[in-house]
Amino acid sequence: MRSIRPLLAATGLAAALALTATACGPTEDKASGGGDKASAPAASTPAGDASAGNSDIALPKDLADKLKEHGVDPEKWKKGEWQNWDKDKWLREAKDFVNPVIEGLWKPERMRTAKDPAKTMAAGDLSGGQGVSDPTPRPVQAQREKTPYTKHGAPVGKLFFDSPKGHMVCSGTVIKDVNNPGKSNLVWTAGHCVHAGAAGGWYRNLIFVPAYNNNALSPTALQAAPPQEEAPYGAYWADWVATSGEWIQGGGPTGGNGAPYDYAVMHVKPEKGGKSLEETVGTAVPVDFNAPDTRRISAMGAWGYPAGPPYDGYVMHKCVDRPGRLSLSPSTPSMHRIGCTMTGGSSGGGWFMNRAGGGLSLVSNTSIGPVTHGWLAGPRLGKGAEQIYTMMSKRYGKS
């Protein structure tokens, strides 16, 4: 069923929603944002290869004990035991997340061959809640983000992780930390990018690479390019992650009852270097847990790295549309939905809207889409999402 409402001109919406960034010196803090075109906070240009400098890997003090508690030897884990996905070795409870740093694991070629964990749905999957869903939106063709990303899409990046199906890729966004202004180490993504849901547990070896492939080089050109092209700000390992209990208990291959709660917050640390993620990238986006009703929002934009055909995962894309509602079940909250042709790999990428006073705020993330790739849906961020964010900020923000 195609939408009968008129589609707003893409050029007008794109002008209203733009993840722009302004270059600044390495010691300046311009993350407060503002501006007259609803642009995101300013971002610094990369100061060479962000992997340079002294190692600053600091694992949680109880990490070794936690691994041993589950019968895992930390040294064996780093040498390959993490590849054991036996049910009794796959940690799934919220309190059981572990992600020891394995230096050198995520080599450039390994990143380039990561697959997308697509969450696609057939038309029959949507029958449960159509009574309160708005008409299916018309497809909006995803547009390439301007390069270099360090000036135009700096807070967005790629999330890499390992699952029983191999090494995988999603998208994520650097978000502000209200308890650590200017020094955030928090990344917003989808729950299905960090945890398998009802049928599994936590994924492993999670890292975040902001502004991946900074100049949108082709695979061949990127292979021959210096490391700072692929990871202009370096790589950041997740040392703690939280997702919703609803996703852990009810998430499924096509989202399931966990889809309206398919969000996650990661706390990260650089594999090498000492500065916070926000200081290094130069920008972070605030999260809005009190966004208006979907029907009152004139424009919403989704950013990410689509990796499923016809895309290859090397280029950041965006879609901007007037959102509608998608209901999967009468017992769960409705989701935001926009027309967009992005595919798997864009999962977890932030959705933004203009906020009062200028700039953008994050209001959702890519969760599910149809096999026809004509639209995307993301969860509404309410009290549950805010509780997870607040816990991560207070408990892990300064660690």
Task: Kindly list the characteristics that best describe this protein.
signal; Secreted protein; Peptidase_S1_PA_chymotrypsin; single chain; alpha+beta; globular; Peptidase_S1_PA; 10 helices; Glutamyl_endopeptidase; 5-stranded antiparallel sheet; 16% helix
Question: TL;DR of this structure?
Answer:
This protein is 16% helix and 22% strand. The chain has ten helices and 18 strands. The protein has helices at residues 10-16, 63-69, 74-78, 108-112, 149-152, 219-224, 227-230, 245-250, 277-281, 383-396, and strands at residues 120-121, 143-144, 156-163, 166-175, 186-189, 204-210, 236-243, 251-252, 255-256, 264-270, 300-304, 317-321, 324-326, 335-339, 350-354, 360-365, 369-370, 375-379.
What's the domain count? 1
Shape: globular
Number of helices: 10
Strand content: 15-25%
What is the arithmetic mean of pLDDT? 82
CATH class: Mainly Beta
Main beta-sheet annotation: 6 strands, antiparallel, barrel
The N- and C-terminal alpha carbons lie at a distance of 49 Å
Strand order of the largest sheet: 3-4-5-10-7-6
CATH fold descriptor = Thrombin, subunit H
| Radius of gyration, CA atoms, in whole angstroms | 19 Å
Q: Low-confidence segments, ≥5 residues, pLDDT <50? A: 1-15, 21-61
Give the H and E element order.
HHHHEEHEEEEHHEHEEEHEEEEEEEEH
- Structural category: alpha+beta
Number of strands: 18
**What is the annotated CATH architecture?**
Beta Barrel
Signal peptide: 1-23
Organism: Streptomyces finlayi
Protein name: Secreted protein
Biased composition (Basic and acidic residues): 62-80
